[in-house]
Design goal:
This protein is α+β, with helices and mostly antiparallel strands. Helix content is 44%, strand content 10%. A hairpin with a 6-residue loop joins strand 1 and strand 2.
């Protein structure tokens, strides 16, 4: 992408895509990255654009790994909702459109991006704990519903919405602690 206007358009596209990503906006809004969370979010846009500028043929899975690493390192956040690959594919598609000069298509696609659904996210607070005496695992009851995909191709799985039916899920937080100090919370079966 040699044209400066293409670079600017791609930077605008990356900015809008990342700002529409509920996982990142949640991490920024709640300060998961510390006092400089907003600056880290802005840096992500720069880093993605710079990476595409310096390298040819970046694949979605490579960008997915990069974004996952940044979320983990800078925001202490792990996205397990399937949105990482979708955001990565969207950014790669925008890059190819910008590189081929399809400005109108880029602008139209950006208009379809939804706002992040941070207000619909529910806290992972523990209502009740049940210990499994045999394994020592702790099961937590909570209510959440992950909705299906959005009409315009942006994953609604980015959001966790409170459901009026209050279906309960078991969350296994057990004694599973990774070497890096993270406590792994796994989605369990619905009751």
């Amino acid at each position: 992408m040699a044209a400066s206007s293409g670079d600017t358009l791609f930077e605008s596209a990356v900015t809008k895509i990342l700002k529409s990503w509920t996982v990142l906006e949640l991490a920024i809004n709640h300060g998961f990255g510390g006092a400089h969370s907003q600056e880290k979010g802005d840096w992500m846009v720069y880093a993605v654009c710079q990476w595409f500028k310096e390298n040819d043929g970046i694949e979605a899975y490579e960008l997915e790994d990069f974004l996952a690493d940044v979320l983990n390192t800078e925001f202490d956040t792990i996205a397990e909702d399937g949105s990482l690959i979708q955001i990565s594919e969207m950014i790669c598609k925008m890059y190819s459109l910008c590189a081929s000069g399809q400005t109108i298509d880029v602008v139209e696609r950006l208009k379809l991006l939804p706002s992040p659904q941070v207000q619909h996210c529910v806290s992972a607070t523990v209502c009740q704990e049940e210990n499994d005496e045999e394994t020592g695992d702790v099961f937590c009851n909570g209510s959440s519903d992950v909705s299906g995909s959005h009409e315009n191709g942006v994953p609604a799985a980015q959001t966790t919405r409170a459901d009026n039916s209050h279906q309960e899920e078991e969350m296994d937080t057990g004694d599973v602690e990774a070497d890096d100090g993270w406590t792994v919370v796994k989605k369990g079966k619905r009751r």
